[in-house]
Design a protein that fits this description.
Elements lengths: L9 E4 L5 H12 L3 E6 L3 H15 L3 E5 L8 H11 L5 E4 L20 H28 L3 E8 L10 H21 L4 E8 L5 H4 L4 H11 L12 H7 L11 E4 L7
Parallel strand pairs: 1-2, 1-4, 2-3, 4-5, 5-6, 6-7
Helix pairs in contact: 1-2, 1-8, 4-5
């Protein structure tokens, strides 16, 4: 049985209805943490997750619709959050965009277009900034907290068609370091968790998914793809007292693939 080590704490994670975000919701809820998360379109899926974690773990869960291509609307979401929760301890920026929004941002270098690249920057860096700013205002009221941006080893290892995402993951990791330097005086730690290719719906949408999967398995000393749950341990660690002197860092969880 998992110990309720986060009872009385509250997590807010963006993009909590599938993949890595959903795994994070369950990992924190299992440890007694109340959870708030955002969704893009599927309110029914969000409601199902809320009902499931509340019944299984006896915690409070709420979900809010958010378009991360409109980061300023984070402020409206936090107004709703404040009606449901009286504290915020952890914020994890996880949501990503895919589909038409990344046209011109996902592809070979010679096909990249400013609009697609700018959309990825908005959803990756701008959304992190606004979400973390609003989180920090609330964390300061309760004596501090932990902020995490999910990142990707696509900014360390060449991945076909990933230039737009990879460069913006590098940018958000730099933003994490700046945030850590300035928020430390408020007892707020800021770090990033960088995953190697993780077997999620987002990755399966890649046209070269099978090629990527095969290459990851070949490169990894552990001979397997990463699963969403493989990233939750680092998030739990970064939100615990065990990492109380760790800030401004990126933890790479890649199955050993970046060394190959």
């Amino acid at each position: 049985m998992v110990e309720k080590i986060m009872q009385g704490k509250t997590l807010f994670v963006s993009g909590g209805t599938r993949g890595i975000g959903k795994a994070i919701v369950y990992a924190f809820a299992q440890r007694g943490c109340d959870v708030a998360f955002t969704y893009a379109t599927k309110a029914e899926t969000a409601d199902e997750i809320i009902a499931d974690v509340e019944s299984k773990y006896g915690i409070k869960a709420r979900a809010y619709k958010l378009d991360i291509l409109e980061p300023e609307t984070y402020k409206d979401v936090y107004v709703e959050f404040d009606k449901d929760f009286n504290r915020l301890d952890f914020f994890i920026s996880n949501a990503i965009i895919s589909g038409r929004a990344v046209v011109g941002g996902f592809g070979p270098f010679m096909r990249l277009k400013p609009k697609g690249l700018n959309n990825i920057y908005t959803a990756t860096v701008d959304a992190f900034v606004v979400g973390a700013q609003e989180a920090a205002k609330r964390m300061e009221l309760t004596g501090g907290g932990s902020i995490i941006s999910m990142s990707s080893t696509g900014n360390l290892v060449y991945t076909p068609n990933y230039a737009g995402h990879g460069t913006n993951k590098a940018a958000v990791e730099a933003m994490v370091r700046y945030a850590a330097a300035e928020l430390g005086e408020k007892k707020i730690r800021v770090n990033a968790v960088s995953g190697g290719p993780i077997d999620t719906d987002a990755l399966r949408a890649f046209p070269n998914y099978e090629e990527v999967k095969s290459e990851v398995i070949k490169r990894s000393p552990l001979s397997r793809m990463g699963e969403a749950e493989d990233l939750t341990g680092a998030c739990l660690f970064l939100c615990s007292e065990a990492s109380s002197w760790l800030t401004g860092q990126t933890i790479v969880i890649d199955g050993g693939t970046t060394f190959q």
